[in-house]
Specification:
2 domains, Jelly Rolls, 5-stranded antiparallel beta sheet, alpha+beta, 4-stranded antiparallel beta sheet, binds calcium ion
Length: 235
């Protein structure tokens, strides 16, 4: 496939923008749910009780089917409670964030807990008491979706904040956050590549195609993308 190459210049002003658009720390991540997102039936409820064991919570099918979602993987770095917060952010207009924590992918089973408004609408919050207890080598999967059945509240931008002994494990090239690097990600990558600057208003929130976190989507990112594409499955 051929990329739509445009002339790209890294001027002084662009470098300032690059700093402003630099990748967030491993405890935070901004992303956007859009038409490109995978869709599925999320767990039903905000009141799902925590489970001490993987898959111990009852998974209830949602009445809101085919909601867009994103999957983010967490790696625990030590013992202790982990909290995950999802906040709707600009330019989101109506996203009502929903969080589910799982101990294995895909996020349709192996549920630990789920939340809608514990952090106050429109903020979802999973605290350590809700099954997210860290331990060296432990992995968790967090599903970010919408709680609303209203179509206009299913899409938007969200900021994820992780506190406690865990970091967000990034999957290079998985620009739509479905857990694999494939042609759908390539389409999104090209979109970002043609815009170049992460600060471009048209860029998807979080600039997922900027794989090296320097504020641009350019050839350096493409090299990294190819590496992820050849691997296909996220680690
Ligand atoms: Ca993907
Ligand atoms: Ca870059």
């Amino acid at each position: 496939m051929r990329l739509d190459l445009r002339a790209k210049r890294k001027c002084a002003a662009c470098l300032v923008l690059a700093v402003a658009g630099a990748a967030l720390a491993d405890g935070t991540l901004s992303l956007q749910l859009g038409a490109w997102s995978p869709v599925g039936n999320r767990a039903n409820d905000a009141s799902l009780q925590p489970s001490a064991t993987c898959g111990g919570a009852t998974w209830l099918a949602s009445v809101n089917t085919n909601v867009p979602y994103a999957i983010v993987k967490l790696s625990s770095t030590g013992v202790g409670a982990i909290s995950v917060k999802a906040e709707a952010i600009a330019p989101a207009t109506g996203l009502d964030p929903f969080l589910g924590a799982y101990c294995a992918a895909p996020p349709a089973t192996m549920l630990l807990s789920a939340d809608d408004d514990s952090g106050g609408y429109p903020t979802a919050l999973l605290s350590g008491a809700r099954g997210l207890t860290g331990g060296v080598g432990k992995k968790f999967y967090v599903m970010i979706a919408s709680y609303s059945a209203r179509p206009e509240r299913r899409y938007g931008s969200v900021k994820l904040t992780v506190t406690g002994p865990a970091v967000i494990q990034k999957c290079l090239g998985d620009t739509n956050y479905d857990g694999a690097v494939d042609d759908a990600d390539f389409s999104l990558f090209v979109q970002g590549y043609n815009l170049l600057l992460c600060s471009d208003p048209a860029m998807i929130t979080g600039c997922p195609a900027d794989l090296n976190g320097d504020g641009f989507v350019d050839d350096a990112d493409f090299t990294l993308f190819v590496g992820g594409y050849n691997t296909l499955l996220c680690p």
